[in-house]
Amino acid sequence: MKMYKKLTLITLFLISSLNAEGLKEIIKYAIDNNNNIKAVELENQSKQKTYESVKNIYKPNVIIGGSYSKLDMDVRESQVGNTAVGFLKFGIDLYNGGREEALKAQKKYEYKEAIFSTVIRKKELALQVVTYFYQAKSIDENIKALIEKRITLTAELKRVKIKYDIKMITEDEVLKLQSEYEENEYDIQELEYQKTYMLKNLSLLTGKDIGQLDDSTLPEVQNLEFSDSENIKAMQENIKALEQNVNVVSSLKKLQLKLENSLNVYGYSDYNKQILKDLPKQQNQLMLTLTYNIFDTSSSEKKQAALLIKKAKDEQLYQLKKQEKINYELTKLKLQTQKAKIKSAKSALDMTNKLFEIIEIKYQNDVVDNITYLDALSAKVINRAIYKQSLYDYEIAKANYYFTSGINYEDVLSMDF
Protein backbone atom coordinates (compact mmCIF):
# COMPACT_ATOMS: atom_id res chain seq x y z
CA MET A 1 0.00 0.00 0.00
CA LYS A 2 2.86 2.37 0.79
CA MET A 3 4.35 1.79 -2.68
CA TYR A 4 0.95 2.50 -4.23
CA LYS A 5 0.66 5.76 -2.29
CA LYS A 6 4.13 6.84 -3.37
CA LEU A 7 3.42 6.10 -7.04
CA THR A 8 0.13 8.01 -6.83
CA LEU A 9 1.79 11.05 -5.24
CA ILE A 10 4.62 11.01 -7.78
CA THR A 11 2.04 10.92 -10.59
CA LEU A 12 0.18 13.87 -9.06
CA PHE A 13 3.43 15.81 -8.78
CA LEU A 14 4.37 15.16 -12.41
CA ILE A 15 0.90 16.18 -13.62
CA SER A 16 0.99 19.41 -11.59
CA SER A 17 4.47 20.21 -12.91
CA LEU A 18 3.38 20.17 -16.54
CA ASN A 19 3.04 23.70 -17.93
CA ALA A 20 3.52 25.13 -14.44
CA GLU A 21 3.90 28.91 -14.27
CA GLY A 22 6.87 30.49 -12.49
CA LEU A 23 6.38 33.32 -10.00
CA LYS A 24 8.82 35.72 -11.67
CA GLU A 25 7.22 35.22 -15.08
CA ILE A 26 3.73 35.76 -13.64
CA ILE A 27 4.78 39.02 -11.95
CA LYS A 28 6.43 40.33 -15.12
CA TYR A 29 3.46 39.37 -17.25
CA ALA A 30 1.07 41.03 -14.81
CA ILE A 31 3.05 44.29 -14.78
CA ASP A 32 3.19 44.33 -18.59
CA ASN A 33 -0.44 43.39 -19.23
CA ASN A 34 -2.60 44.39 -16.25
CA ASN A 35 -5.31 46.76 -17.45
CA ASN A 36 -5.17 48.94 -14.34
CA ILE A 37 -1.44 49.46 -14.85
CA LYS A 38 -2.05 50.34 -18.49
CA ALA A 39 -4.70 52.84 -17.41
CA VAL A 40 -2.32 54.48 -14.93
CA GLU A 41 0.40 54.73 -17.58
CA LEU A 42 -2.06 56.41 -19.96
CA GLU A 43 -2.94 58.88 -17.20
CA ASN A 44 0.79 59.56 -16.81
CA GLN A 45 1.05 60.32 -20.51
CA SER A 46 -1.81 62.77 -20.07
CA LYS A 47 0.02 64.50 -17.21
CA GLN A 48 3.18 64.61 -19.32
CA LYS A 49 1.27 66.30 -22.14
CA THR A 50 -0.21 68.76 -19.66
CA TYR A 51 3.29 69.57 -18.41
CA GLU A 52 4.57 70.04 -21.96
CA SER A 53 1.66 72.36 -22.71
CA VAL A 54 2.83 74.86 -20.08
CA LYS A 55 6.58 74.56 -20.69
CA ASN A 56 6.74 77.96 -22.43
CA ILE A 57 6.07 80.39 -19.61
CA TYR A 58 5.57 83.38 -21.97
CA LYS A 59 2.60 81.79 -23.70
CA PRO A 60 3.16 83.34 -27.16
CA ASN A 61 0.17 83.05 -29.44
CA VAL A 62 -0.73 84.00 -32.99
CA ILE A 63 -4.38 84.45 -33.90
CA ILE A 64 -5.91 84.99 -37.30
CA GLY A 65 -9.51 86.10 -37.68
CA GLY A 66 -12.02 88.41 -39.23
CA SER A 67 -15.23 90.31 -38.54
CA TYR A 68 -18.05 91.92 -40.45
CA SER A 69 -20.37 94.68 -39.22
CA LYS A 70 -23.41 96.32 -40.80
CA LEU A 71 -25.20 99.48 -39.67
CA ASP A 72 -28.96 100.01 -40.33
CA MET A 73 -31.38 102.83 -39.44
CA ASP A 74 -30.32 106.40 -38.79
CA VAL A 75 -26.85 105.94 -40.22
CA ARG A 76 -25.05 109.28 -40.35
CA GLU A 77 -23.27 110.51 -43.45
CA SER A 78 -19.96 110.25 -41.61
CA GLN A 79 -20.47 106.57 -40.82
CA VAL A 80 -19.63 103.46 -42.82
CA GLY A 81 -22.53 101.12 -43.42
CA ASN A 82 -20.60 97.88 -43.91
CA THR A 83 -17.14 97.13 -42.58
CA ALA A 84 -15.10 93.94 -43.01
CA VAL A 85 -11.91 93.43 -41.02
CA GLY A 86 -9.27 90.72 -41.31
CA PHE A 87 -6.59 90.59 -38.65
CA LEU A 88 -3.42 88.79 -37.60
CA LYS A 89 -2.64 89.22 -33.92
CA PHE A 90 0.48 88.24 -31.96
CA GLY A 91 0.51 88.30 -28.15
CA ILE A 92 2.97 87.40 -25.41
CA ASP A 93 2.96 87.64 -21.62
CA LEU A 94 6.18 89.42 -20.69
CA TYR A 95 5.49 89.07 -16.98
CA ASN A 96 2.50 87.83 -15.02
CA GLY A 97 3.67 87.84 -11.44
CA GLY A 98 5.52 84.52 -11.79
CA ARG A 99 2.27 82.66 -12.42
CA GLU A 100 3.44 80.76 -15.49
CA GLU A 101 6.77 79.77 -13.90
CA ALA A 102 4.87 78.43 -10.89
CA LEU A 103 2.31 76.66 -13.08
CA LYS A 104 5.07 75.02 -15.10
CA ALA A 105 6.81 73.78 -11.94
CA GLN A 106 3.49 72.60 -10.50
CA LYS A 107 2.72 70.45 -13.56
CA LYS A 108 6.26 69.08 -13.53
CA TYR A 109 5.91 67.95 -9.89
CA GLU A 110 2.47 66.49 -10.58
CA TYR A 111 3.94 64.49 -13.45
CA LYS A 112 6.80 63.22 -11.26
CA GLU A 113 4.28 62.31 -8.56
CA ALA A 114 2.34 60.31 -11.14
CA ILE A 115 5.48 58.38 -12.12
CA PHE A 116 6.09 57.40 -8.49
CA SER A 117 2.43 56.49 -8.13
CA THR A 118 2.76 54.11 -11.07
CA VAL A 119 5.68 52.37 -9.38
CA ILE A 120 3.54 52.07 -6.23
CA ARG A 121 0.77 50.41 -8.23
CA LYS A 122 3.24 47.99 -9.79
CA LYS A 123 4.68 47.04 -6.40
CA GLU A 124 1.20 46.54 -5.01
CA LEU A 125 0.37 44.36 -8.00
CA ALA A 126 3.55 42.32 -7.52
CA LEU A 127 2.69 41.78 -3.85
CA GLN A 128 -0.85 40.72 -4.81
CA VAL A 129 0.56 38.19 -7.25
CA VAL A 130 2.97 36.81 -4.64
CA THR A 131 0.15 36.50 -2.09
CA TYR A 132 -2.25 34.71 -4.45
CA PHE A 133 0.57 32.52 -5.75
CA TYR A 134 1.58 31.18 -2.35
CA GLN A 135 -1.95 30.99 -1.01
CA ALA A 136 -2.82 28.82 -4.02
CA LYS A 137 0.31 26.73 -3.38
CA SER A 138 -0.68 26.29 0.27
CA ILE A 139 -4.17 25.16 -0.71
CA ASP A 140 -2.71 22.80 -3.30
CA GLU A 141 -0.53 21.18 -0.62
CA ASN A 142 -3.60 20.71 1.57
CA ILE A 143 -5.33 19.02 -1.35
CA LYS A 144 -2.38 16.70 -1.85
CA ALA A 145 -2.40 15.81 1.83
CA LEU A 146 -6.13 15.04 1.71
CA ILE A 147 -5.64 12.95 -1.46
CA GLU A 148 -3.00 10.99 0.42
CA LYS A 149 -5.50 10.59 3.23
CA ARG A 150 -8.12 9.45 0.67
CA ILE A 151 -5.75 6.73 -0.55
CA THR A 152 -5.23 5.51 2.99
CA LEU A 153 -8.94 5.64 3.82
CA THR A 154 -9.87 3.82 0.62
CA ALA A 155 -7.47 1.01 1.40
CA GLU A 156 -8.67 0.80 5.00
CA LEU A 157 -12.32 0.78 3.92
CA LYS A 158 -11.65 -2.21 1.71
CA ARG A 159 -9.88 -3.93 4.55
CA VAL A 160 -12.58 -3.33 7.17
CA LYS A 161 -15.37 -4.26 4.76
CA ILE A 162 -13.73 -7.63 4.23
CA LYS A 163 -13.48 -8.06 7.99
CA TYR A 164 -17.09 -6.94 8.38
CA ASP A 165 -18.25 -9.43 5.76
CA ILE A 166 -16.73 -12.26 7.76
CA LYS A 167 -18.20 -10.85 11.02
CA MET A 168 -14.83 -9.94 12.53
CA ILE A 169 -15.90 -6.32 13.31
CA THR A 170 -19.13 -4.45 13.87
CA GLU A 171 -20.84 -2.15 11.37
CA ASP A 172 -20.10 1.02 13.32
CA GLU A 173 -16.38 0.66 12.57
CA VAL A 174 -17.16 0.59 8.83
CA LEU A 175 -19.54 3.53 9.14
CA LYS A 176 -16.94 5.55 11.03
CA LEU A 177 -14.40 5.07 8.24
CA GLN A 178 -17.05 5.72 5.60
CA SER A 179 -18.03 8.98 7.30
CA GLU A 180 -14.40 10.06 7.54
CA TYR A 181 -13.92 9.27 3.85
CA GLU A 182 -16.96 11.32 2.79
CA GLU A 183 -15.91 14.26 4.96
CA ASN A 184 -12.47 14.06 3.40
CA GLU A 185 -14.03 14.15 -0.09
CA TYR A 186 -16.01 17.28 0.82
CA ASP A 187 -12.84 18.93 2.17
CA ILE A 188 -11.05 18.19 -1.12
CA GLN A 189 -13.89 19.74 -3.14
CA GLU A 190 -13.95 22.82 -0.93
CA LEU A 191 -10.20 23.28 -1.27
CA GLU A 192 -10.42 22.75 -5.03
CA TYR A 193 -12.87 25.66 -5.14
CA GLN A 194 -10.53 27.83 -3.06
CA LYS A 195 -7.60 26.94 -5.33
CA THR A 196 -9.68 27.80 -8.41
CA TYR A 197 -10.60 31.12 -6.77
CA MET A 198 -6.92 31.96 -6.22
CA LEU A 199 -5.91 30.95 -9.74
CA LYS A 200 -8.79 32.93 -11.27
CA ASN A 201 -7.66 36.01 -9.37
CA LEU A 202 -4.11 35.47 -10.62
CA SER A 203 -5.47 35.15 -14.14
CA LEU A 204 -7.44 38.37 -13.68
CA LEU A 205 -4.37 40.25 -12.47
CA THR A 206 -2.22 39.02 -15.33
CA GLY A 207 -4.73 38.80 -18.18
CA LYS A 208 -3.52 35.25 -18.78
CA ASP A 209 -5.02 31.85 -17.96
CA ILE A 210 -3.02 30.23 -15.14
CA GLY A 211 -3.64 26.60 -14.26
CA GLN A 212 -0.57 25.28 -12.47
CA LEU A 213 2.18 26.90 -10.39
CA ASP A 214 5.78 25.81 -10.08
CA ASP A 215 7.85 25.62 -6.89
CA SER A 216 9.39 29.10 -7.12
CA THR A 217 10.73 30.59 -3.91
CA LEU A 218 11.85 34.17 -3.43
CA PRO A 219 15.59 34.74 -2.84
CA GLU A 220 16.88 35.19 0.67
CA VAL A 221 17.90 38.83 1.17
CA GLN A 222 19.03 39.81 4.62
CA ASN A 223 19.70 43.21 6.22
CA LEU A 224 18.20 45.35 3.50
CA GLU A 225 18.81 49.03 4.14
CA PHE A 226 15.62 50.99 4.70
CA SER A 227 15.02 53.80 2.22
CA ASP A 228 12.13 56.09 1.38
CA SER A 229 9.41 54.29 -0.53
CA GLU A 230 7.69 55.58 -3.64
CA ASN A 231 4.74 56.51 -1.39
CA ILE A 232 6.95 59.03 0.41
CA LYS A 233 8.56 60.25 -2.81
CA ALA A 234 5.16 60.72 -4.44
CA MET A 235 3.89 62.72 -1.47
CA GLN A 236 7.05 64.86 -1.51
CA GLU A 237 6.39 65.71 -5.16
CA ASN A 238 2.76 66.44 -4.29
CA ILE A 239 3.90 68.89 -1.59
CA LYS A 240 6.21 70.61 -4.08
CA ALA A 241 3.26 70.96 -6.45
CA LEU A 242 1.16 72.46 -3.64
CA GLU A 243 3.94 74.96 -2.88
CA GLN A 244 3.80 76.08 -6.49
CA ASN A 245 0.03 76.35 -6.25
CA VAL A 246 0.56 78.90 -3.48
CA ASN A 247 2.78 80.86 -5.89
CA VAL A 248 0.12 80.63 -8.61
CA VAL A 249 -2.46 82.17 -6.29
CA SER A 250 0.02 84.81 -5.05
CA SER A 251 0.72 85.92 -8.61
CA LEU A 252 -2.79 87.40 -8.83
CA LYS A 253 -1.62 90.29 -6.61
CA LYS A 254 1.48 91.07 -8.67
CA LEU A 255 2.21 93.16 -11.75
CA GLN A 256 1.05 91.83 -15.13
CA LEU A 257 2.79 92.94 -18.33
CA LYS A 258 1.55 91.89 -21.78
CA LEU A 259 2.67 92.78 -25.32
CA GLU A 260 0.28 92.57 -28.30
CA ASN A 261 0.71 93.43 -31.98
CA SER A 262 -2.19 93.39 -34.45
CA LEU A 263 -2.15 93.74 -38.24
CA ASN A 264 -5.61 94.68 -39.55
CA VAL A 265 -6.88 94.82 -43.12
CA TYR A 266 -10.16 96.72 -43.74
CA GLY A 267 -12.84 96.65 -46.43
CA TYR A 268 -15.78 99.10 -46.63
CA SER A 269 -19.06 99.46 -48.49
CA ASP A 270 -22.27 101.51 -48.25
CA TYR A 271 -20.72 104.83 -47.21
CA ASN A 272 -20.41 108.39 -48.51
CA LYS A 273 -17.14 108.46 -50.43
CA GLN A 274 -17.22 112.24 -50.65
CA ILE A 275 -17.15 112.66 -46.90
CA LEU A 276 -15.12 109.60 -45.92
CA LYS A 277 -12.09 109.77 -48.19
CA ASP A 278 -9.27 108.66 -45.90
CA LEU A 279 -10.52 105.41 -44.47
CA PRO A 280 -7.55 103.16 -43.55
CA LYS A 281 -6.96 100.06 -45.64
CA GLN A 282 -4.30 98.54 -43.38
CA GLN A 283 -3.23 99.28 -39.81
CA ASN A 284 -0.66 97.80 -37.45
CA GLN A 285 -1.27 98.29 -33.74
CA LEU A 286 1.34 97.68 -31.03
CA MET A 287 0.02 97.60 -27.47
CA LEU A 288 1.90 97.19 -24.18
CA THR A 289 -0.42 96.60 -21.22
CA LEU A 290 0.61 96.91 -17.56
CA THR A 291 -1.91 96.00 -14.85
CA TYR A 292 -1.82 95.64 -11.09
CA ASN A 293 -4.60 94.20 -8.93
CA ILE A 294 -4.83 96.59 -5.98
CA PHE A 295 -7.92 95.02 -4.44
CA ASP A 296 -10.10 91.92 -4.70
CA THR A 297 -12.13 89.94 -2.20
CA SER A 298 -10.77 86.42 -2.74
CA SER A 299 -6.99 86.33 -3.41
CA SER A 300 -5.97 86.41 0.25
CA GLU A 301 -8.37 83.61 1.20
CA LYS A 302 -7.29 81.51 -1.77
CA LYS A 303 -3.66 81.85 -0.72
CA GLN A 304 -4.47 80.87 2.88
CA ALA A 305 -6.45 77.87 1.64
CA ALA A 306 -3.52 76.74 -0.52
CA LEU A 307 -1.09 77.14 2.40
CA LEU A 308 -3.32 75.12 4.71
CA ILE A 309 -3.57 72.25 2.22
CA LYS A 310 0.21 72.23 1.89
CA LYS A 311 0.64 72.18 5.70
CA ALA A 312 -1.84 69.30 5.94
CA LYS A 313 0.25 67.30 3.46
CA ASP A 314 3.39 68.08 5.47
CA GLU A 315 1.75 66.48 8.52
CA GLN A 316 0.66 63.46 6.48
CA LEU A 317 4.19 63.04 5.13
CA TYR A 318 5.65 63.14 8.64
CA GLN A 319 3.16 60.48 9.78
CA LEU A 320 3.79 58.34 6.68
CA LYS A 321 7.56 58.33 7.29
CA LYS A 322 7.06 57.10 10.86
CA GLN A 323 4.51 54.51 9.73
CA GLU A 324 6.72 53.10 6.98
CA LYS A 325 9.71 52.81 9.32
CA ILE A 326 7.56 50.86 11.79
CA ASN A 327 6.18 48.66 8.99
CA TYR A 328 9.72 47.85 7.88
CA GLU A 329 10.75 46.84 11.39
CA LEU A 330 7.61 44.72 11.78
CA THR A 331 8.10 42.89 8.48
CA LYS A 332 11.70 42.22 9.43
CA LEU A 333 10.52 40.78 12.75
CA LYS A 334 7.82 38.79 10.94
CA LEU A 335 10.54 36.98 8.99
CA GLN A 336 12.11 35.76 12.21
CA THR A 337 8.72 34.76 13.58
CA GLN A 338 7.94 32.79 10.43
CA LYS A 339 11.27 30.97 10.64
CA ALA A 340 10.41 29.91 14.20
CA LYS A 341 6.97 28.81 13.02
CA ILE A 342 8.50 26.67 10.26
CA LYS A 343 10.81 24.99 12.77
CA SER A 344 7.93 24.33 15.17
CA ALA A 345 5.65 23.04 12.40
CA LYS A 346 8.38 20.73 11.08
CA SER A 347 8.92 19.31 14.54
CA ALA A 348 5.18 18.72 14.98
CA LEU A 349 4.96 17.08 11.53
CA ASP A 350 7.87 14.72 12.25
CA MET A 351 6.27 13.73 15.54
CA THR A 352 2.83 13.03 14.04
CA ASN A 353 4.39 11.08 11.14
CA LYS A 354 6.22 8.80 13.56
CA LEU A 355 3.16 8.50 15.78
CA PHE A 356 0.99 7.58 12.81
CA GLU A 357 3.40 4.87 11.68
CA ILE A 358 3.23 3.31 15.15
CA ILE A 359 -0.55 3.58 15.42
CA GLU A 360 -1.04 2.29 11.85
CA ILE A 361 0.85 -0.89 12.72
CA LYS A 362 -1.11 -1.28 15.96
CA TYR A 363 -4.38 -0.67 14.13
CA GLN A 364 -3.61 -3.26 11.49
CA ASN A 365 -2.90 -5.69 14.29
CA ASP A 366 -6.12 -4.73 16.12
CA VAL A 367 -4.26 -3.28 19.11
CA VAL A 368 -6.01 0.12 18.79
CA ASP A 369 -9.47 0.98 17.46
CA ASN A 370 -10.32 2.92 14.29
CA ILE A 371 -11.04 6.12 16.23
CA THR A 372 -7.46 6.26 17.45
CA TYR A 373 -6.26 5.45 13.96
CA LEU A 374 -8.38 8.16 12.32
CA ASP A 375 -7.29 10.73 14.91
CA ALA A 376 -3.66 9.94 14.16
CA LEU A 377 -4.28 10.13 10.41
CA SER A 378 -6.06 13.50 10.75
CA ALA A 379 -3.27 14.86 12.93
CA LYS A 380 -0.73 13.84 10.31
CA VAL A 381 -2.68 15.56 7.52
CA ILE A 382 -3.30 18.72 9.57
CA ASN A 383 0.33 19.07 10.64
CA ARG A 384 1.54 18.57 7.10
CA ALA A 385 -0.81 21.33 5.95
CA ILE A 386 0.38 23.62 8.75
CA TYR A 387 4.01 22.98 7.86
CA LYS A 388 3.48 23.68 4.16
CA GLN A 389 1.45 26.80 4.92
CA SER A 390 4.21 28.08 7.20
CA LEU A 391 6.68 27.72 4.31
CA TYR A 392 4.45 29.72 1.96
CA ASP A 393 3.64 32.32 4.61
CA TYR A 394 7.40 32.79 4.91
CA GLU A 395 7.59 33.55 1.19
CA ILE A 396 4.84 36.17 1.51
CA ALA A 397 6.67 37.63 4.52
CA LYS A 398 9.82 37.93 2.40
CA ALA A 399 7.92 39.85 -0.27
CA ASN A 400 6.54 42.25 2.35
CA TYR A 401 10.05 42.69 3.76
CA TYR A 402 11.46 43.57 0.33
CA PHE A 403 8.83 46.15 -0.50
CA THR A 404 8.60 47.82 2.92
CA SER A 405 12.39 48.30 2.81
CA GLY A 406 11.93 50.64 -0.16
CA ILE A 407 13.66 48.36 -2.67
CA ASN A 408 12.54 48.78 -6.28
CA TYR A 409 10.41 45.95 -7.64
CA GLU A 410 12.71 45.81 -10.69
CA ASP A 411 15.64 44.98 -8.40
CA VAL A 412 13.65 42.10 -6.94
CA LEU A 413 12.75 40.80 -10.40
CA SER A 414 16.40 40.92 -11.43
CA MET A 415 17.23 38.34 -8.72
CA ASP A 416 17.38 34.63 -9.44
CA PHE A 417 14.25 32.77 -8.31
Characteristic terms for this protein:
single chain; 417 residues; alpha+beta
Give the CA-CA distance, first to last residue.
37 Å
Globally, the shape reads elongated
Q: Which consecutive residue ranges, at least 5 long each, have pLDDT under 50?
A: 12-18
The radius of gyration over CA amounts to 38 Å
The total of helices stands at 9
Largest sheet: 4 strands, antiparallel
Break the fold down into its secondary structure elements and pairings.
Blueprint: H1 2-17, H2 23-33, H3 35-53, E1 61-70, E2 82-95, H4 99-165, H5 171-206, H6 230-250, E3 256-269, E4 282-291, H7 299-364, H8 370-404, H9 409-413
Antiparallel strand pairs: 1-2, 2-3, 3-4
Helix pairs in contact: 1-4, 2-4, 3-4, 4-5, 4-6, 4-8, 6-7, 7-8
